[in-house]
Amino acid sequence: MIRLFCALILLLVFPSFSRSKEDRPNILLIFADDLGWSDLACYGGDRFFTPHLDQLASEGIRFTEAYAAAPICSASRAALLTGNSTARNGFEFVVKEAPGKQDFRVPLQSPPFTLDLALESTTIPEMLAPKGYATAFFGKWHLNTHHKRYLGWSPTHGPHGQGFQSAEEDFGSHPYSYWKDKALRSFDDAVENGIFPEDGMTRRAIEFLSQEHDKPFFLMVSHFFVHDPNHTRLRWLHDQYIDQLPADTRNREKVAHYGAMVTTLDHHVGQLLAALEDSGHLDSTLVVFTSDNGGHPNYAGNAPLRGSKWNLYEGGIRVPFLVRWPGVAPEGAVCSEVVWSPDLAPTFAEIAGASNESAHDGRSLTDLIRNPDSELEERSLYWHFPYYHPEKNYQDRIDAIGINDGETSKTRPHSAIRKGDWKLLHFYEDDRNELYHIQNDLSESRDLASAEPEKTEALRTDLLKYLHRVQARFPTPRASSRK
């Protein structure tokens, strides 16, 4: 009786002790690598099995017009964690082993490589920790100069240096874990049909979930799947895809390996979500799943979207985006509002009651999550990619960027803006613009720049004004001898 009386007094004096489903939930962010928008069945994909992610979509909100902040890994991750665009961060490409710049025969000189996410940047865990959140990270970081090995974490600029209290390195079962040993680049016939080998990265995340938590947590699980090397050691899963793929599938063998990687990713996500339920945290946890950029052109496909990772057509930046928040987000909802990954920082900050003043380019989605039928105030989204790709054998690549052509095309320095239904791409080599009405032309096949000169000029002005305001780094003309 005395304990009950004391509890009632605490609730009256400190009402924050009484937690609703919306009050300071745990946050689980699951981040895929190179997973395309159309790879999941719940997004209309018909090639790969993704039952756990499809179930996650049915239990929450599936956003149909969600974007990554960049068409490439490191830049996208920096933007998500800070809530700022790649242009504002000055972080538009991937990190390298040493300082330098692109140096091959092209008309423009791209900016020097950015090697680390600046410690002055305020990240999501640094926003949440002051509000009592425990913060943890497992998986692919890719935001510091490669330390001792490819993707190695820096002791100063790794997850611990950017606000994560718990973090461990582990490639898990991804091909990165065995690729150096050529003998292992074959099928593991010891794995029985229907069995997936343990993924150490997922296991570490599950161990974190299984701990006693006396305060809310922010857990980021950053998968290496489905980034290349494009390979599976599971013969049973590879053969399953070979049997079901049409005989005329372009790059059929590669697609079979890729499909196995997609399904393996889905399996590990399922394990993580099951552990969340087993730990008793399901009803008090906001789960977000998304990808860092679009799929690889040689096997992901991305149709009906044009382009792929490395460029700013829809196939390079439109990504899956799923949100489950029991008791808050309606189940089975579909939202067509335009959102992007920098929105997550201010969203998580608002949910935690934290400051998000450093997140300039994102917008909180909490109201939209509660009511997916509501509308966001119209805004402009900006992308900036002042680099060339690929860096090897660039001159041998095809010029055209198509749809499901199985080719790694030449990507030239360019930027993009989306406002409402309109999207403009600006190319720096020839000061050229392309304009598309996304709602009527999802595949970006009809360039309306000539037919809509006023709209083209308005969006171009908006884009360049923003880039100059945030002091974006631009490509510059090279010496004539290098052209």
Defining key terms:
483 residues, 2 domains, 12 helices, disordered N terminus, Alkaline Phosphatase, subunit A, eight-stranded mixed sheet, single chain, alpha/beta, Arylsulfatase, C-terminal domain, 25% helix, four-stranded antiparallel sheet, 16 strands
How would you concisely characterize the structure shown here?
This protein is an alpha/beta fold and 483 residues long.
How would you sum up this structure, described in words?
By secondary structure, the protein is α/β, with parallel strands linked by helices. The protein has two domains: 20-379, Alkaline Phosphatase, subunit A (3-Layer(aba) Sandwich), CATH 3.40.720; 382-482, Arylsulfatase, C-terminal domain (2-Layer Sandwich), CATH 3.30.1120. It has twelve helices and 16 strands. An eight-stranded mixed β-sheet has the order 6-5-7-1-8-9-2-10, covered by helices on one side. A four-stranded antiparallel β-sheet has the order 12-13-14-15, with helices on one face. A hairpin with a 4-residue loop joins strand 14 (422-427) and strand 15 (432-437). Helix 6 (200-210) packs parallel to helix 8 and helix 7 packs across helix 8 (252-278). The longest helix has 27 residues, at 252-278. The chain is globular and about 55 Å long. The N and C termini lie far apart (84 Å). Residues 1-21 have low confidence and may be disordered.
